[in-house]
Specification:
The complex is a heterodimer. By secondary structure, chain A is of the alpha/beta class. Chain A is built from six helices and ten strands. The mean pLDDT of chain A is about 90. Chain B has two domains: about 230 residues, Rossmann fold; about 60 residues. Chain B is built from ten helices and twelve strands. The chains are: A alpha/beta, B alpha/beta.
Chain lengths: ~210, ~300
Amino acid sequence: MRLEARKLSFRYHRKQPWILNNCNLSVETGSRLALVAPSGYGKTTLALLLSGYLQPTEGEVILDGRPLPQKGICPVQLIYQHPEKAINPRWRLRQVLEDGGQMQEEIFPAFGIQREWLNRFPGELSAGELQRFCVARALLSGASFLICDEISTMLDVITQAQIWNKILEEAKNRSMGIIVITHNLALATKICDQIYDLSKQEYRDKSS
Amino acid sequence: MEAKKKTLLEIHNLSVAFWMYNGILTQDQLQVISDLQLTVYPGEIVAVAGSSGSGKSLLASAILGLLPGNAVVRGHLYYRGKELDSVQQTRLRGKEIAWIPQSLTYLDPLMKVGKQADGHRKPYPTQKRRALFQRLNLPKETENLYPFQLSGGMARRVLVSTAMLTDAQLVIADEPTPGMSLEQALEALKLFREMADQGRAVILITHDIDLALAFADKIAVFYAGTTVEIASASEFRMGPAALRHPYSKALWQALPQNGFQPIEGFQPYAGALPKGCLFAPRCSQATKECKEQKPAIRSVRGGEVRCFYAT
């Protein structure tokens, strides 16, 4: 399967400047692409477009030769930069997880999720702990593409390495495609096959 | 650093617990920070690194007196040698002690960011704020935007500028850099460095150890609600051999450029802390003693560490 952005452009209003202009990109399942650019270059906007949360002003998002499905759980799942904004503050975390699909308790140890946390409200956990729920929720839904928008900056490096190793393992098993948005070039080089620089709109050499 | 220098902030044996319902009528205390020690001198940037959920942000709230009503705080906080109680906290916060919150939800969604950075100060510090925005690489139009129109990195820089607009002597920056590009993060930290060089101080809570290393004077490593090691930044740069605590060493080894190798297991849950050393269940060198007794913090090679076997 292939996720493609064709001549994607976006702006909030016709009197406002383009946030994204004529962006072309494609990812295959089983491959991993890093998106890098300075802050404010539309990385998150691109992520929202690719996962169907925003409609492009021009151009289209193509999944497996067809536009993104409008019904059901989207096969392109986005994990947000700010977990506290991506979780319903009035739901207990059990509900949050069940929202992603059938709960599989065996994934808890891999993400370091404590059973006691399931009965808590999001305000009672730290940002790093919430992010683990967001990652678990996205994986439970059985998506074929995962977009990770700066998902690990609020995690300590050990948890970061643990979660990335788990995501990479799952991605390999299910042959998922992953788009990683990050400012950490060391991380991008370590986990991705390709690096795309959104500010120059070109693929970057991994070695440089 | 001379030993007699006056401290700006001293934290002694700080513990924070929360009352939580465990039934309809009964409550339990959940201890989330225990026996925490930290000293901040004027002119210093103290980086606080460590496990997520180890109480770093709670420490910031405890210093500022922003903990919710069900929190129980024990231990002592001193600001410039004077006890920092709730009356002092209310008087000082926002003026002497400024805070850069971790969550972007602290921005008022219905107010343009320029106006909200100015705050209630009269006259409005508009000139100073524009200069700061420019320095932080925020375009001129930013001041007329609402928070939802900003990218993550831009919103963070607005939050940083709100704290820099105060004349605070102590800034507590809770993860100020995620979402910023490297250049912007460097610029923000350069601002902190300049502040510190004027004799003010910064507590920098961060997961970005690389950045912290480049700017901080010392690094406090947190684990499960307590400080396990306080080391100078130069020791951290030297790598595991210069570090004292096995957890600090493990942090270093988990960095993407140093192997990306996580250690096994997870930080213990606050309700089920081990009896002995908090790190013992994950430590490869743990002995019987570690499992039964809590090590006290002690000085080793000019730093401080909470481990029986640190050398």
